[in-house]
Write a structure and sequence with these properties.
Blueprint (H helix, E strand, L loop, with lengths): L6 H13 L4 H14 L21 E8 L2 E8 L2 H14 L4 H5 L5 H4 L2 H4 L2 H24 L3
Antiparallel strand pairs: 1-2
Helix pairs in contact: 1-3, 2-3, 3-7
């Protein structure tokens, strides 16, 4: 968990990691590896209400709230998408709802993700971000004192 790191610090780590690769083939390989390391989602969460709308592939995303922090779990049937969601989870899980709702997520552009993804994948990535922010907003509203 990224308990002590800010979203910006984690984003910077990812940008640095991607800067080590010269070609997009290598970057895709890295994204695929990240996807392979993503913990599988328990079957009880793989249901229609947890699917991310707007993704061409199937993506399940669930969020939990504990000690003021939002925790995400996800899985996809597409290996690249699994890598993308694993990066989003790395950046956003363990952060406060406020931090998540206000996150700029500039790393997505900085590593060149949007320009190198097919339009449908790009839309799916934005849909995943939107869903994660919606969960955070819901927890923020639910736990506002």
């Amino acid at each position: 968990m990224n308990e002590d790191k800010t979203i910006a610090e984690i984003e910077n780590e990812i940008v640095e990691e991607f800067s080590l690769f010269d070609s997009w083939d290598d970057k895709y390989e890295y994204i695929i590896d990240l996807g392979k390391k993503l913990s599988p989602l328990e079957d009880q969460y793989k249901k229609e209400e947890n699917r991310v709308r707007g993704c061409q592939s199937t993506v399940w995303l669930v969020a939990d709230y504990s000690d003021g922090k939002v925790l995400y779990k996800a899985e996809s049937d597409a290996i690249i998408v699994k890598g993308l969601i694993s990066m989003l989870i790395r950046v956003l899980t363990g952060q406060t709802p406020d931090a998540i709702v206000n996150a700029r997520l500039n790393f997505i552009n900085e590593i060149g993700m949007i320009s190198h993804l097919a339009q449908t994948r790009s839309n799916g990535l934005l849909a995943m971000v939107k869903q994660m922010k919606n969960y955070a907003l819901a927890y923020k509203l639910k736990h506002a004192s």
